[in-house]
Amino acid sequence: MIGLAAGGFGALLGVGGGLIIVPALSLLAGLSLHAAIGTSLVCICASSAASAAVYLRRGRVELPVAVELQFFSVTGAVVAGLTAGFIPSTPLYFVFAILLTVVAAQMWPAAKAGWLERRLALVSARDAVARGASVGAGLLSGLLGVGGGILNTPVLHLVLGMRFERAAATSSYMIGMTAAAGALVYLVRGDIRPGLVTAAMVGTLVGAVPAALGGHRLSARWLRLAFAVLLLFVAYQMIRRGFTEL
Amino acid sequence: MASPSSEPGPLERRAGTLLGVMAGAALACVGVGLAVLGLASAAHAALGERLLALATSLVVLAPLVSLGGVTLGAMKSRRRLALVALATLVVTLVGMGLAR
């Protein structure tokens, strides 16, 4: 059930569902955080493979943009994975929480359109901002076991000006590679137990396909609202985690 | 950086097909693995668990295989895209090697 919900929700919004899977597996199923993150990364790969396969064949993925930004997010994920022990995580949680709250305000359907665009036009550095945000998405992925879609989708939509559905589809493809970079490390170390992963993985595979096939029928306004609420929820979780680790 | 397009090009089709094939193969492995585990003898249990492990590996490798397909497909006509895709694959594999 956790996998189904994460797969469906993730395919619609261009996120991997790690934000649902990690807390659900650790809080509801009683897994250690380590095992939950490994399981989550495999599920994100599954969700991405199922939904991006549909999106790519329907021409909804901006492949050149996805491939270019993937390089930066994978680099961020690898750096986070290798230096996780040396990075002070508490300030990072607060920085990301503030960043996500600002992005949520921009994604809110009633937000004044163009606020972010005007500022980015002033510095004329959209591509640089997108690349920097992709590194941030990779860092987030390496630290929390998520795919980084919570930053990818807003960046593609707000910074690069893609329509929301295309941004979500492109992000769906990007998060697979970012999650795979982390999941491979867990797999090589033998930290992923196939029996444990199977149920959640099948759930995400099965949940992602109908969402990818029928997602375009949903209104962009509702999808943006759902995304903004998701961002605020994650920001709250990060602040809580930051205070716990203080 | 963004370029509007609606019809999938050959690269998009190739990447999508590779992802779909890997995901489908993983689902098939899970189905057969669970069926074998259902037979409930010790020899079958080991085979079933291997099939589930194979399914996990297929899912994790799916994005890499897809990106590998993009790299090969873009090699002649879109050299820059191929190089970026190749660099991403190299960074991923180097990261995995260092983590060991």
Tally of separate domains of chain A? 1
Tell me the radius of gyration of chain A.
Answer: 17 Å
What is the overall silhouette of chain A?
globular
Mean pLDDT value of chain A: 78
Oligomer: heterodimer
Assign the structural class of chain B, choosing from mainly alpha, mainly beta, alpha/beta, alpha+beta, or little secondary structure: mainly alpha
Q: Most extensive interface, residues per chain? A: A-B, 57 and 52 residues
Q: Please describe the biggest sheet of chain A, giving its number of strands, its sense, and whether it closes into a barrel.
A: none
**What is the typical, i.e. mean, pLDDT of chain B?**
87
Number of strands of chain A: 0
Overall 3D shape of chain B: elongated
Distance between the termini of chain A: 34 Å
Number of helices of chain A: 11
Low-pLDDT windows of residues of chain B? none
Tell me the distance between the termini of chain B: 36 Å
Strand and helix order of chain B: HHH
Number of DSSP strand runs of chain B: 0
Write down the secondary-structure element order of chain A: HHHHHHHHHHH
What is the number of domains of chain B? 1
By secondary-structure content and strand pairing, the structural class of chain A works out as: mainly alpha
Strand-residue fraction of chain A? under 5%
What does this 3D model show about the protein?
Chain A has 246 residues and is an all-alpha fold. Chain A has helices at 2-13, 18-28, 33-57, 63-83, 89-107, 115-123, 126-144, 149-159, 164-188, 194-214, 220-245. Chain A is globular and about 40 Å long. The N and C termini of chain A lie far apart (34 Å). The N and C termini of chain B lie far apart (36 Å). Chain B has one domain. Chain B has helices at 10-38, 42-74, 79-99. By secondary structure, chain B is mostly helical. Chains A and B meet through helix 3, helix 4, helix 7, helix 9 and helix 10 of A and helix 1, helix 2 and helix 3 of B.
